Structures are given as structure tokens and as C-alpha cells.
């Protein structure tokens, strides 16, 4: 593995850090408290090229590699994980999926607006009874000749009300099981498509998460992604890359909380000295930093595998599994280092702790990552 970043990768990292530090801190507590979608911030992120980083310039993207994407995701997540999940879904799931498997018409139609931040996208796989067991799709896409008739409900959809383009996974031929599933592009204003209530979440509260209802929604055949029956494989491929983005998000949450804990430990005094002079705190800081560095290496390994066209299902799942654990542990410790201050909102670490939890759940729980890893090992 080459640990030397290129000048371009370093420039992307610096730009993301600069943007996050100067534009995301302001209002982050209020956005979290009031579940306020970061509309202005996402628009700016689109203008700066963070919403379609890996898409080819031909479709308005940045043409960057996955390593650059990981570096940017970490920096944005160090301040506001709500912004980074919106960014991650748009980049890894929607834009990447469309560019890799979409038709030329689909790419031309959607990618330039998705990459510029003019619109955002959503990825709709989870259902009331199909989260981890993704083959159990109850949403149906009945083949009506020139179109599909979409019926069903999706749950916990990131960008649920703010998206304009939805990639919806649905069952067309139940007898074919996962080989009968399709992925369809559904536009927001299509008749019969209703956005349900917004979820009141523990963390990433600035992002909007909704259930979606489809009742006899007519989706033209040209909106199908890939061949008939490719939908489940499409979802698996897209999620394999998405996990690298969420691993980088978890890494950023951990490093953001760590940086605050480190700073606080040098300011706060107890028993006559800064608390950083106490070994109890030093040990915590050492553990946090070691785990974060290890998580970063796994994230970069997975990103590099993807950039080198090496199978990244295992390395991406390992990165997500480990980084999300580190995010959870580090943020809990960051609250502990802050003592009573850590328990109040002004000091940010309680928000990082709440945000960390979702990284062990979405785009496959930690248990699902272990299934993916062990399957690769046992192949
Ligand atoms: N890449 C490509 N193909 C894959 C694959 C991968 N990583 N994993 C499985 N497949 C293929 C298999 O090869 C198989 O194809 P064939 O039958 O044609 O050979 C097919 O998919 C079915 O495979 P399995 O029998 O192994 O499937 P399974 O039912 O046992 O489940 C699973 C596999 C990995 C557990 C899968 O169901 C899974 O990933 N579940 C978690 C889903 C998930 O991440 N949900 C999160 C929702 S999205 C989200 O959270 C977004 C957000 O808001 C941020």
C-alpha cells in the first residue's frame, strides 16, 4: 500500500477541511437540535465539487479517486455527520450507481444535476420487513410492457423528502427471488409517490429520513438500471462501495471527537494540573489515537482497492466494521474526558456520540459486515 498522498489528494483534503471548519461549525448544534436540513451547506458542497466527487467530468463530476473521497468524507464528518451522510448517499450510492450501471441517457439526464448539488438523490432498499435481509423485498414493480407499476413502502430513507431522484429496489418476479429484483429511477413528482413522516432520530438529525409510499406509480421501462433482474446485484455492488464512504464517516466522527477531547484535556485543570497530565486521561487519548489511525488505514486500504479495481467487498466491510466500532468507543471516551461538560450540547461530543451509533447500523449492521467478511474469507 502506498501511503504517500498525491498533491491532488492533499488539495482535496485541505479544501474539505477548510470548508468544514469555516462553514459547518456555525449552526451545527441548532441543525441537530431542530432537525434542520443543511440546505445551504449542501448547495455549497455541490458548488465545491463534493457531491459528485468520483463522477467523470463528462457528467459534471470531479473525476477523483476513492482515496480523495475518503479524505473529504473524514473532514466533513469531523464537524457535521448529517452533511456527510447526505454527501455519502449522493456520491457512493446514487451517482456511482448511475454512472457505473446506468444508460447513457440516464447519465446525461441525472448526473450533471446530481453532481452540481442542484438536486440530490436517495437510495431506497430498506423496507419495514427488509433491512439486513435485503432479498425480502415486498415492494413490487409489476412489468406492464412499456412501464413498471410500483407498489409498496420503503423505510428509513436518507434524503427522503429532499431528494429529487430515487433509486428504488423492487421485486418484479417473486419466483426468481433475488434474481427477479429490479432497480428503478423514480422522480419525485411521479403520481402515486408519497413521502411519509420524517423520523425523529437519535443522531444525524440534520439529515432527513422518511418512509416512502408508492401506490400504482408508473415508472417507464427506460428508468430501469441494468438488465431485467439486475436490481439485487446492483444494490450489493453499490452498497459495497457505500460502506467505504460510511467507514470514512465513522472515522471522521471519531477523529472529530478525539480532537475536541485532546484540546479540552490541555485546557481543563483538576487536582492542580491540566487533566492531560493525569495518566488516566493520557491512556484514553493514546487508545483513541491508536484506534483512529488503524481505522484510517483500513479506510484507505479499501479505497485503494476500489481505485486499483481489486475486489473491495471484504476490505470495505472491514473498514466499516472497525471504523464504526472505533467511532462509538472514541465518542463515548470523548464524553468521559469532558466530564459533565461532555453531557451538554455546547461541547459537541454528545452529538458525535449520538451520530456514531448509526454507522454501526446503516448500509449493513456490524453483524452484516461480519457476514460479508467471513463469506469472502471462506470463498
Ligand atoms: N457484490 C455483488 N454481488 C453480491 C454481493 C456483493 N457484495 N453480495 C451478494 N451478492 C450476490 C450473490 O453473488 C448472489 O448472486 P447469485 O445468486 O446470482 O450468485 C446474490 O447477490 C445473493 O447473494 P446471497 O445469497 O449471498 O444473499 P443473502 O440474502 O444471503 O444476503 C447480504 C447477502 C450480504 C447479507 C445482503 O443481504 C446485505 O448486504 N444485506 C444488508 C443490506 C444493507 O446494507 N441494507 C442497508 C440499506 S441502505 C442504507 O442504509 C442507505 C442509507 O440510508 C445510508
Automatic annotation (TrEMBL):
| Acyl-CoA dehydrogenase/oxidase N-terminal domain location | 6-118
Question: What is the superkingdom listed in this entry's lineage?
Answer: Bacteria
Cofactor dependency:
FAD
Q: Where is the Acyl-CoA dehydrogenase/oxidase C-terminal domain?
A: 231-377
| Keyword annotations from UniProtKB, A to Z | FAD, Flavoprotein, Oxidoreductase
Q: Which GO terms describe its molecular function?
A: acyl-CoA dehydrogenase activity; flavin adenine dinucleotide binding
**A Pfam family it matches:** Acyl-CoA_dh_M
Write the protein's name: Cyclohex-1-ene-1-carbonyl-CoA dehydrogenase
Amino acid at each position: 500500500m502506498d501511503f504517500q498522498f498525491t498533491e491532488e489528494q492533499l488539495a482535496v483534503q485541505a479544501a474539505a477541511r477548510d470548508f468544514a471548519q469555516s462553514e459547518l461549525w456555525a449552526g451545527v448544534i441548532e441543525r441537530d437540535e431542530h432537525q434542520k436540513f443543511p440546505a445551504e451547506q449542501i448547495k455549497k458542497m455541490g458548488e465545491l465539487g463534493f457531491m459528485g466527487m468520483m463522477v467523470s467530468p463528462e457528467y459534471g463530476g470531479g473525476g477523483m479517486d476513492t482515496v480523495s473521497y475518503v479524505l473529504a468524507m473524514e473532514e466533513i464528518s469531523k464537524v457535521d455527520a448529517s452533511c456527510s451522510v447526505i454527501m455519502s448517499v449522493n456520491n457512493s450510492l446514487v451517482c456511482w450507481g448511475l454512472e457505473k450501471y446506468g444508460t447513457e441517457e440516464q447519465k446525461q439526464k441525472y448526473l450533471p444535476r446530481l453532481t452540481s448539488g442542484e438536486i440530490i438523490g436517495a437510495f431506497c432498499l430498506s423496507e419495514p420487513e427488509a433491512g439486513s435481509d435485503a432479498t425480502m423485498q415486498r415492494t413490487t414493480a409489476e412489468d406492464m410492457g412499456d412501464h413498471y407499476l410500483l407498489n409498496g413502502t420503503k423505510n428509513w430513507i436518507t434524503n427522503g423528502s429532499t431528494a429529487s431522484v430515487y433509486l428504488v429496489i423492487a421485486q418484479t418476479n417473486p419466483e426468481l427471488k433475488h434474481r427477479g429484483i429490479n432497480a428503478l429511477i423514480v422522480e419525485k413528482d411521479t403520481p402515486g409517490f408519497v413521502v411519509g413522516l420524517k423520523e425523529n432520530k437519535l443522531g444525524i438529525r440534520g439529515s432527513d429520513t422518511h418512509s416512502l409510499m408508492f401506490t400504482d406509480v408508473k415508472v417507464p421501462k427506460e428508468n430501469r438500471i441494468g438488465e431485467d433482474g439486475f436490481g439485487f446485484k446492483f444494490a450489493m455492488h453499490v452498497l459495497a462501495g457505500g460502506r467505504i464512504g460510511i467507514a470514512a464517516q465513522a472515522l471522521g466522527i471519531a477523529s472529530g471527537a478525539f480532537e475536541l477531547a485532546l484540546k479540552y484535556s490541555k485546557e481543563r485543570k483538576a487536582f492542580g494540573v491540566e487533566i492531560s497530565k493525569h495518566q488516566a486521561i493520557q491512556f484514553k487519548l493514546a487508545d483513541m489515537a491508536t484506534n483512529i489511525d488503524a481505522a484510517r488505514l483500513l479506510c484507505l486500504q479499501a479505497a485503494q482497492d476500489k481505485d486499483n479495481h481489486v475486489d473491495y467487498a471484504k476490505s470495505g466491510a472491514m473498514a466499516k466494521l472497525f471504523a464504526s466500532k472505533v467511532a462509538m468507543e472514541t465518542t463515548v471516551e470523548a464524553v468521559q474526558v469532558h466530564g459533565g461538560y461532555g453531557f451538554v450540547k455546547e461541547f459537541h461530543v454528545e452529538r458525535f456520540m449520538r451520530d456514531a451509533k448509526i454507522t454501526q447500523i446503516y448500509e449493513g449492521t456490524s453483524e452484516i459486515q461480519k457476514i460479508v467478511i467471513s463469506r469472502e474469507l471462506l470463498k
